[in-house]
Amino acid sequence: MIADEIREKISGIVEREDAEIAIETSSMDMSAMGGSGITVQIEGRELDTLQELAKEVAGIVESVEGTTEVSDGLEESTGELRIVVDREKAIEHGFTVAQVFQQIQSKLATATSATSLETEIRDYDVYVKNAEDMALTRNLVKDLTLDRQKNDGSKETVKLSDIATFENTETSMSVNRLNQTRYIAVTAQLADGYNIGLVSDAVEKALADYELPDGYTIEMTGENETITDAMQQVYLMLILALIFMYLIMVAQFQSLLSPFIIMFTIPLAFTGGFLGLLISGSEVSVIALIGFVMLSGIIVNNGIVLVDYINQLRAQGMEKKEAIMTAGRTRIRPVLMTAMTTILALSTMVFSHDMGADMSKPMSVVTIGGLTYGTLLTLIVIPCIYDVFSREKKGEKHERKKLFVKAGKKEQADE
């Protein structure tokens, strides 16, 4: 894999303390339809709590087999000097917490443009700055003084360090929100040879026992969510396809039984499709499910050709079992021809190595496997099912005898 070769070649660079390299990959497969592998969103109000939860969740995700390059979402963070005001000490000196931060903010505020000078070449911004102002560092912030006017009109100077403590922490450079709620996303790439669905299920099970504080939630998003939504849509598409096929055949056959018999070809085809995926080592992906939808529409043609001809022969007066045998011998060639043309046409997609071939391969594997397995068993299973479910109607035998008598075959009818 290209990503592995890149990691191998830059291994010497990564060992340096001042270098950090991240490699992201995506495969050309319908199972990868957006997102970055596995994503776990932690939602809540307090950023500090979110950061702690993100680190713990990242550790759990990293322990799941099949995950790699786990990120706790805090890579783009920066150092922060946090000023924690002691409310009681501030009150003793006549300050409220809001007043303390107002004075600090005024001392930290940067100068803004007061006006601008226009020339023929460009415009120049003019800033007004106090000569006594200086660039504040963290150490200088700790030495800041706050001014307060007493009731008697005199001024009091209070050192910031006397009423506040200082903490050096790390914080995210940006705050992400979803539906007006803060969140941090823990992401992980998929290791080589692992299925996104199976690994996501394992991550969900690992996080099931993790206890969250009140007001905080965990949600699986990213590629797994996209695939799950797409598969649900394909499942719905498949169910509707089966319903519409059955209703159309009922309208054409003017019967509920014949379409019911023909629908038995679909489980046979699906079995062949899953066997094709198993033999080829392909995963059940969205594009593979689309192949099953195609297969359900193709495979019923064989059953329609067979059952319709059996019905025609019986309508002409032929006995049920004889009609089944005759239809099987007569229709075997067109059934095999229609299946072989589709199989040979799709085989080019299976053995192709062009760009994008991996995306269409699962669909062709499902269709070829289902057609091969389903067609062969259709010629055996459908006649047997027809014989079991389709009964000779009363008077049908009598009518057949009358036809034989009119044709001068009374002896055969008596037998």
Strand content: 15-25%
Q: State the distance separating the first and last CA atoms.
A: 73 Å
The name of the CATH topology of the largest domain is Multidrug efflux transporter AcrB transmembrane fold
Number of helices: 16
Shape: elongated
- Helical content stands at 55-70%
Number of domains: 3
Secondary-structure topology with pairs:
Blueprint: H1 2-9, H2 11-14, E1 38-44, H3 47-63, E2 67-71, E3 77-85, H4 87-92, H5 97-108, E4 113-118, E5 123-127, H6 138-142, E6 145-149, E7 155-159, H7 160-163, E8 164-172, E9 176-178, E10 181-190, H8 196-208, E11 217-222, H9 223-253, H10 257-262, H11 265-280, H12 286-315, H13 320-351, H14 357-389, H15 396-406, H16 410-414
Antiparallel strand pairs: 1-10, 1-11, 2-10, 3-8, 4-5, 6-7, 9-10
Helix pairs in contact: 9-12, 11-12, 11-14, 12-13, 12-14, 13-14
What's the short version?
The protein is of the alpha+beta class and 415 residues long.
Q: Tags for this entry?
A:
415 residues, alpha+beta, Multidrug efflux transporter AcrB TolC docking domain, DN and DC subdomains, Multidrug efflux transporter AcrB transmembrane fold, two-stranded antiparallel sheet, 16 helices, 17% strand
Describe this structure in words.
- With 415 residues, the protein is an alpha+beta fold.
- It has three domains: 2-76 and 183-222, Alpha-Beta Plaits (2-Layer Sandwich); 80-172, 2-Layer Sandwich (Multidrug efflux transporter AcrB TolC docking domain, DN and DC subdomains), CATH 3.30.2090.10; 255-414, Multidrug efflux transporter AcrB transmembrane domain (Multidrug efflux transporter AcrB transmembrane fold, Up-down Bundle).
- The chain is built from 16 helices and eleven strands.
- Strands 1, 2, 9, 10 and 11 form a five-stranded antiparallel β-sheet that branches. It has a two-stranded antiparallel sheet with strand order 3-8. A two-stranded antiparallel ribbon has the order 4-5.
- Strand 6 (145-149) and strand 7 (155-159) form a beta hairpin.
- Helix 9 (223-253) packs parallel to helix 12 (286-315), helix 12 packs antiparallel against helix 13 and helix 12 (286-315) runs parallel beside helix 14.
- Mean pLDDT is 78; it is low at 28-36, 400-405 and 407-415.
